[in-house]
Amino acid sequence: MVTFGHFVLPLLLLGGAITVEVQRPRGVPLSKRQFYEEDKPFTCLDGSRTVAFDRVNDDYCDCPDGSDEPGTAACPNGNFHCTNAGFRPAFIPSSRVNDGICDCCDTTDEYNSGADCQNTCREMGRKEKEELQKLAEIAEEGFLLKKQLIQEAKHGLEEKKTKLEEFQKNKKDLEANVETLRTVKETAEQPEREAKERHLKAWEEQKAAIRLEKDRARMVEVLVELDDDADGFVSVAELQSHSELDPDSDGSFTEAEAQGLLRGMDKVDAVVFETVWNNIKEKYVSESNADIPPPGETPPEETPDIVSENDSENYPDEDIPEEEEDDDDEDDDEDDDMDDGDYKAPPTTRTDEKKKDDDDEGPMPPYDQETQALIDAAQKARDEFNEAEKALREVEDQIRNLEKEISFDFGPSSEFAYLYSQCYELTTSEYVYRLCPFNKVSQKPKFGGSETSLGTWGKWAGPEDNIHSVMKYENGMGCWQGPSRSTTVKLTCGKETVVTSTSEPSRCEYLMEFTSPAICQEPARFDSGHPDHEEL
Amino acid sequence: MLAGMGPVLLVWLAVCLGGTWAVDKGNFKTCEQSAFCKRQRAIKPGESPYRALLETMELTNTRLTLQLINDNNKVRLLLELYRLQGNITRVKINELKPLKPRYEVPDVLIREPPTEPLSLLSQDENGVVLSLGPESQRVIVSARPFRLDIVEGRDVLMSLNSRGLLGFEHLRMRKDTQADPETDNKEGADPANQDENTKEEEEKVEDGMWEETFKSHTDSKPNGPSAVSLDFSLPGVEHVYGIPEHADTLKLKTTDSGDPYRLYNLDVFQYELYNPMALYGAVPVMLAHNAQRTTGIFWLNAAETWVDISSNTAGKTVFGKMLDYVQGSSETPQTDVRWISESGIIDVFLMLGPTPREVFSQYASLTGTQAFPPLASLGYHQCRWNYNDQEDVRSVDAGFDEHDIPYDFIWLDIEHTDGKRYFTWDPHKFASPKEMLQGLMDKKRKMVAIVDPHIKIDTNYKIHNEISSRGFYVKNKDGGDYEGWCWPGSAGYPDFTRPDMRAWWASQFAYDQYEGAMENLYTWNDMNEPSVFNGPEVTMHKDALHGAWEHRDVHNLYGIYVHMATAQGLIERSGGVERPFVLTRAFFAGSQRYGAVWTGDNAAEWDHLKISIPMCLSLSLVGISFCGADVGGFFKSPSTELLVRWYQTGAYQPFFRAHAHLDTPRREPWLFGPENTALIREAVRQRYTFLPYWYQLFYLAYHTGEPVMRPLWVEYPQDPATFALDDEFLLGRDLLVHPVTEEGARGVTAYLPGKDEVWFDIHTFQKHNGGQNLYIPVTMSSIPVFQRGGSIIPRKLRVRRSSACMEDDPYTLYVALNNQRTAEGELYIDDGHTFNYEKKEFIHRRFSFSNNVLSSVNLEPGAQFTTKSWVERIIILGASNPSTITLRTADGVNQLEFDFDASMSVLTIRKPGMNAGADWSVSLQ
């Protein structure tokens, strides 16, 4: 049978002050003392039953709410109150009373377990006080910094607004400038175009003349070649010797067919041959070339195949277990190299031929001075226009960025604005973590390897009453068979803006601790006493 | 996290992980793809070519030997027949003169089984009849063809080779010409010619006899064909059980239309349910049951084994002349079983019951009983791949306290090591393991760290260097150290079949060897099939060498040897004082002696929750009581409802551990909102209140071999309604559990067995009659559990943060009265963690209630132990209202206060206060 005394003996605590414990059953907080009156029947705090007072703390659970056993482990749902003089009082579950583990710093929970507990309340109180003091100091300094930040942000915002206005004004000027220059450009381009067309037309005509000359020269050559008997005429028979000229290409070049080509005549002289030549020149094969196959196009290197091989190596990411990251990245690099190779591939044969064709007629002669002057003028106008347009675009970008920044939620007083476009790093044993607030979070292996995105700015995600205490970064690099990486950034008050820790509590869900003065709250007046100590 | 795994593993992962969630069946052999299974299965029932040569019979006091001859090839076999103590018959068949010795499984039997005399009853030219003892049991050996029948009275209990499927591939010199493939081709091209050439003693060379290729792996088979096979007919039997491990129903199915059940320890990635594929462990023991009798067949062979089951259609072979008097009515149901193993010998133990309990004790007499676990290991285990670092461990531990959920063990998976080098700690994440372990110890909690058997090949790794220099690694077929890919990349596999290797391994657990270990650190053996990522079927090549033996011969033993050596290590580190706790994934017959098993890498699916019941029941039937499934499911992420239901189910299964894959979101019990936290807390707390009962059941399992978790038919063997039930189960005799395993369930229908029984809902104390299907409406908080009328269950209702914190706590006795107003129960108490119970340092009480007197008597007068625990409350269910209650102890007599709830007939006796180890009686007047 296990029974215990119901009362804590009045204790004299040493160490300066003399504290008197108020008599009440073990485990009962002062606030509930009035419900436990000695020698009066005890009514369970839920009112469910009334038992004799000696049932209180008799190590048997009588009340469904556990209130008859505040000082024992008898009730499954009971609570034990530790006074913890020198520190903070606390409730612990009844199941921790006499379980051999010291839970209350005043050791009162282990009164019958044989556990060797030391009273650590004063030590803990001191530590907590120090801690609180430190935190208060940090909060105080942090809050000062925060005020500064708010001020800066305010100035920054005003500056930005001013700048924005400037930019907007600037933009208008630039727009006007662009329009002016556009007119100038278009005005300059009209004569340029005309002059260039003239020049080109002249060149085309010149080319046609050259071609005609060449054709006639060849015709004469052919005529001589065909005129086997050198009588100045091309006969049916002579023509028949060139089987490639067979009009229906059926393998037999008949007399009639040959005659047909010769306009029904048996033979033609040089003058008539000129009309015959137009019909046969496409097919005609010079006798000196007859045995050599016509210069066909050798098929270009089978680049498409190589390309497709590259493609097949570049398998989709989702097939690769993400553990392979490093290797994967290497593959990517290789692919990039190959792509580069493709860009640098020599021009195809076709281009070569074209060049050769052009060479036949020679290069286009340079523009004459007048045309060149027009072109130069137009080019200048174009350049100026482009320059102006570029300037306008830049200003528009700046306006967009400014507008975005101005409209961003940087906290109730824009105190987080200073984090914008900053980055903070933390190096662990394996990785360098990088937090760029309102932008992205990433991780890079310390000893080489590529960066992995742990998420891009998502939203403020703190609890409703303190939404700016947590940042959420989402849609980072995908995880194998899982979601894409994301990072939760918890902000705590600190004098400095630092990433203090990172962890991955769940696969691909990262947690970052980040201190910043911007989250510091105005410190409550710190009192050096123990205002929350109810035992005094 | 897995960076550093080599390319082969990555390919393996890509292949295995890339696709769907189902197992890739193509990675594992079918019978058709396993040459010996295909060859043996091609033999159809018919007249056996084997003949018993009765003239060679020798009968000594303890055994009968007899030669068998195969009339086709004239190869002679030696049959040995033993009568073993406890109604077991052992039949061994080996080659009379094998070319070289064939493997006989060592270390599985706890001793050479003691024999009983056999006596000859009659003999003629057709056979002999031997008496198997007093029970009018006889064994009939028929000569032509050879068969064995075990009969009792007029009943045939079991027949061997009655379908003529005895197959014994004798060892032979290689006749096919590896060196000259042309000859081979010629032979193949002219089968007629080959037939002529084939002499009686020469068998046809078939594909796969001397070499076999599966996927990219070639098995060199230098010893050629060596399979053994035998059929067993079980007249009158319609229900067979056992041969774990398969993800299938409790009642085994016939295999005529598909593959046989396969026993070959394999690391099966994302296994599929309801099929006969092999899994991580193998226990070649089958139980056969009908309303009259339970028997068992233990096929002691560690090679790859396939088991075919058919029913009634087969088995109509001609019965011998001497069996003519036995009715061969076609109405009699019959189950036929055929065992096929790749090598070794036939060594089979016929356990003849006749009751389920006797079969358990017969099997226990051969392979031993469940290791008696430390009490704490029956508590709740919190595991995850992986707790990231010490801070993570600390905060999870604190989470349990914050949410007031008890737990005993927190587990560390492979990431805790320094680069998958077991016995080491990651220098950054687990820089001060002793500090961490001390933190747990301060809360009377414990830790398990994983130690797998594959060893990273790394000359800077002490364990590797020592194994390597001692020549302890398994060798490849060419004699070099066998290398495979596993978690660490290239790894060696210690040869655990060697006693010197096991002794060395055990020594590595000593505190001065295993740096960072403390007495509250225990061990988990995973991947011990063995798992070889780049090996055939994700395991070791069969032609790898363990000394003189091929891996083929010993494969299914690798896991048990790892488990054995590890458990031994934990025992030795404490100087033999402390009980070990080791969890294993691979197992074999006898693994129960070394610790706990779990059902491997399951998935967060409702069907996986359901299958956990038959999977653990099948293991329980073959001696392995300490079984559990990963709560929540390993792969994938469970819905909150599934997770809660899994906790509720796991709380009533022997090994209660939550576990989760690396890639799943966190799922500690408090992450699903206060309501679900409360549901999980309640389930875990129920577990802790029943710890005294669990502990007593494990003591019983250790003591007698009776399973902790039982199919209903074990206790109601004559009730056919129970024979196939596997959605509910019994714990011991007295708790019936029907967990909710259906999504969105509004109710469950539980079968309450026993026409004369009554069952009490443990939550409401409502009484129900047995022999009925009871519909129970359920909510999310419901765990339908019933206490049998007639039982007394001791519980501890003061649930604390770990089992050790509850050591001295008082008991509440739940006395559930049956229709005769009697009840019985037991209480076992010891120190909870040492082997001192072997020195009789324990309390074992029997409680009984009859004639309105509840009394506690000592069951072990020779035992001595003292406890601080007392009896704080007695709750009598189905009671009537007494006027007075009197307690009598050695200290005297006093009246007790009580409370009677007339609506539920529940009598609560307040604070009797006697010590739990004392003699006492409480009388109701």
UniProtKB/TrEMBL annotation, chain A:
Residues 1-19 form the signal peptide. Residues 421-522 form the MRH domain. The keyword Metal-binding does not apply. GO terms for biological process: liver development; N-glycan processing. Residues 150-220, 371-405 form a coiled coil. GO terms for cellular component: glucosidase II complex. Residues 299-340 have a biased composition (Acidic residues). Keywords: Coiled coil, Disulfide bond, Endoplasmic reticulum, Signal. Gene3D superfamilies: Mannose-6-phosphate receptor binding domain. PROSITE patterns: EF_HAND_1, MRH. Residues 287-368 are annotated as: Disordered. This is Glucosidase 2 subunit beta. It comes from Fundulus heteroclitus.
From TrEMBL, chain B:
It comes from the Eukaryota. Keywords: Glycosidase, Hydrolase, Signal. GO terms for molecular function: carbohydrate binding; glucan 1,3-alpha-glucosidase activity. Residues 705-793 form the Glycosyl hydrolase family 31 C-terminal domain. Residues 79-308 form the Glycoside hydrolase family 31 N-terminal domain. Gene3D superfamilies: Glycosidases (3.20.20.80), glycosyl hydrolase (family 31) (2.60.40.1760), Golgi alpha-mannosidase II (2.60.40.1180). Residues 176-189 have a biased composition (Basic and acidic residues). Residues 198-207 have a biased composition (Acidic residues). This is Glucosidase II alpha subunit. The keyword Signal applies. Belongs to the glycosyl hydrolase 31 family. Residues 176-207 are annotated as: Disordered. It holds the Pfam family Glyco_hydro_31_3rd. Residues 371-697 form the Glycoside hydrolase family 31 TIM barrel domain. One of its GO terms (biological process) is N-glycan processing. Residues 1-22 form the signal peptide. PANTHER family: ALPHA-GLUCOSIDASE (PTHR22762), NEUTRAL ALPHA-GLUCOSIDASE AB (PTHR22762:SF162). GO terms for cellular component: glucosidase II complex. SUPFAM superfamilies: (Trans)glycosidases (SSF51445), Galactose mutarotase-like (SSF74650), Glycosyl hydrolase domain (SSF51011).
